[in-house]
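Preliminary data (for renewal application), NAP complex.
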Amino acid sequence: MITASTFRLDGRLALVTGSSAGIGLALARGLGQAGATIVLNGRNAAPLAAAAQLLRSEGLTVHERAFDVTDATQVQAQVADIEKQIGPIEILINNAGIQRRGPLHEYAHSDWHDIMQTNLNSVFFVGQTVAQHMITRGRGRIVNICSVQSELGRPGIAPYMATKGAVKMLTKGMAVDWGPLGLNVNGIGPGYFKTELNEKLVNDPTFSAWLTNRTPNRRWGEVQELAGAAVFLASDASTFVNGHILYVDGGVTAQL
Ligand code: NAP
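Predicted structure:
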C-alpha cells in the first residue's frame, strides 16, 4: 500500500555531488527534508561549509566532504572514508556539472577536456565507486542529473549537449548492468533553472523572453521544484523504476 511514508527516506544516507550551491543544494535539502542524512560535496571548502551550516540551521543532518569528482583517486578515498566514518551510502545523486559555452569550430580543447571530465567522467568515477559498495549490499539508488540538452540542442553548447546525451545513455547502461545486482539507476532532466551555471542566460532579457515563451509553463524553474523527483527516485515509491529519465522542465521537451 502506498502512503506518504513510502516516500520517506529516514535513516538513509545520501551523497549529493556538487551540492554547495544551485540544484545540488536544493536536491540535498529535499532529501534531508524527507528524512535522509546528507553528505554535501563541492571542491571549495568555504561555500561547502556555509551550505552545510544553512541546512543544519533548518534542522537537517548534514556532513560535508570537499573533493573533486573528476579525480578518481580522491573519489575512491572519499567514498571509502564516508562508508567507514559515516555509514553506507544508500542514495547517490551525481549532480556536479559545469557549462562552457563557445562556437564549436573555435572551442578550446582544454574546455572540451574539462566539460567531459566534470559532466561525464565523474558520473562514471563516482557511480562505479559507490556502486561497488551498493552491490555488496544488494541495494542502492543512483540518480544522474541529465538535462533537456540530453535530448535537444541550442547554439553554442554542443560539448555540453554531448556530455548530457552521454549521461542519459550511461544512466540506462548502469540500470541494465546493475539492475540485476539490486540497484535502481535513473536520471532527472532539468529544464532551465536560475543558478550560477545559467547566470549569463538569466541576465539576458532576450533569452529570458524566448525561454518563457518556449516553455509551456511560461516561466523559469525554481530549484526546489526538482526535489520531488529526487525524493521519488530515492524512495520506496519507485522500486520498479529503473533506467528512466524524468524530465522536470515545465513541458519544454513536450513541444517543438
Ligand atoms: P551550479 O549552480 O554552478 O553549481 C555547481 C555545483 O557543483 C557547485 O556546488 C560546485 O561547487 C560543484 N562542482 C563543480 N565542479 C565540481 C567538481 N569537479 N567536483 C565537485 N564539485 C563540483 O550548477 P547547477 O546549475 O546547480 O547545475 C547542477 C547540475 O544540474 C549540473 O550537472 C548541470 O549540468 C545540471 N543542469 C542544470 C540546469 C540549470 O538550469 N541550472 C539545467 C539542466 C541541468 P565548487 O565549484 O565549489 O566545486
